[in-house]
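Hi R.,

Here's the chain you asked about this morning:
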Amino acid sequence: MFQTEKISQYQFANKKLKETILGTKMAGFKQPVYEIIAFNLQSISIYDSKYELFETKYNNPVSDDALKDYNYKLLDTAAIKGRNTFMIYFKNKQKRKAAGLEGVLYIDQENFAIAKAVMRIKGVLDISGIHEFEYVPQEKIWFPSNTTFKIVKGKNDDDINILGGTIQFDGDSEDAFTTRKKSASDFTYVLSESNNSDIHYNTITPIKDPSYYIEIKDDASTKPEEFWNEYRKENLDLKSQRTYQLLDSISINKRIEKRLWLGRKIINGYIPIGPVDLDLKKVISYNNYEGFRLGLGGITNDRFSKRFRIEGYGAYGTKDGNFKYNLGSGILMDKNTNTWLNGSYTDDVREIASTVFAVDKRVFKIYDPRPINISTFYHYISWKTNLQTKIIPKTEAVFELARTYVEPKFDYLFNHNGQLYSHYVMTTAMASIVWAPFSNFMQTPTGRSETEKRFPRFTFQFTQSLPNVLDNDFSFAKIDFKTEYEKKYLDGQKTSLLFQGGYALGDVPITHLYNTMPNNLNKETVIQRITFSGRNSFETMYFNEFFSSEYLFFQIKHGFNRVKIFKKVRPSLVLVTRMAWGNMEKPEQHIGPAYKTLDKGFFESGLELNKIFKGFGLSGFYRYGPNQLPKIEDNIAVKISYVLDLGL
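And here is the predicted structure, written out as tokens:
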């Protein structure tokens, strides 16, 4: 069904491990799927504090605090490689529905090192990982020799897809009185074997680019058969040879590579049409100012050029009756660091006082509900040039110069030293960077990518106006930052934390200050205010209710595992609490809109019941604290949620 091989060089020094893939081949693909290559089936080291099995981390049974999680039992003694070992069984002691880690450790009686380990999880899938070692007398250590990883079907009611749907396990019938016929997935299994050879100890050769967890050589997918025969422990049998041939022919016949390429584009919000990727986000949207926004946009792809790109869009608002457009281009400066030099011209509108981090990833949503309720925008005409790069390890950065003409589209004047401005020019320099110090990164022939997203991660952005440059009107600076953290639990629960803040100093119009993400309609009753919920927005804060020149925002979410009510109804419960503090330093500068400040803080809590039916859910929030409103019903917000899971 699926077959892949790789030859890697592993290097370990200064507590850093790096894998350099020298050769790789994947049945059915001319160019390997790098995401599958980076898929971590089991930990390389048996001694890490967290042991990983099938991309799930468990407290290691030999970690410093393992006694709180495991029960141990001495089964017997056994001889391995001529040395006596203790045979110790361990099992997770916590009673919970989720499968825990269990297995057997063979401990050397003399130096107490691990001579063999069998790690196992029994649940909806039966997963096992075996680590074997060779004893090295001159070093007096047990060194890893080979590992085996296997997945077979466990007891599960729902269909399970792994490796991007390449391997599928069908769900079992819930009816205990019905004899189910064996299906193909009852005989399907995943088997991965790794063997270590050509081992060198105590070398002084430095690791090149140690910040990359995985590096794939440019010629790794084009190695000749002689290369593979040199490293294979045993030659491919006839069945394996035919598997490569069969999957290659199936891939060509069913155009699997093309479908995978198309799927990646669609997940990111594009449909490729020849040399251009059509931008699905630009086709249609709605807000209270523009009405229906109808448009067309796209960006050239590799079929046009791998080193040069052109992008743009055009849009028309049925309510404001105006056209908006953008045109830009970019040139690839360095493929390995994904460094692009870009330039663009934009004539468009934007929500006032909104915070945009230039390094944030583009998120495609089939339906983005929050903009529907926004009615206050500003018109801007902008010239920009920027440099996008990943040259600094474990970061992505954008450095930008921009000249922007701004015209508020609501009743507003900015008072600057007694002069009133209804429109103005901003010439700015901006640096934006996201730093993920704990994530794993992979260097591939097509550039750098984040293979394992770990937390916390930090985003910083600094914007400085340039006085007396290209008619700039005001002198100011803005500092923005956010920190994200997520923790996933073995039983399917997840806790998410978000801490964000901003500080504007100098003379900054309200269009470029902070609104702290409101998402509640200014209507009388709870029923009239029902709309779709945002992701990190205040659901009980009314639009244009608060503005700040400095603010702090904190959010905590805890999601419980899905609860099975009926076979097809399994909602997930999420508890949410949000809070913010803020201040307006120069309120006399802003003439027009009436607003409040957040100096006493804003607090709301609620719960989300997501994925009740076909991705739709329901949520409710309550506003409390110093900014609570006199009428109880005005502090209540009921929202509809929609969650769509996309994956290849």
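One quick note: Helices lie at 34-37, 225-231, 238-254, 256-267.

Cheers,
M.
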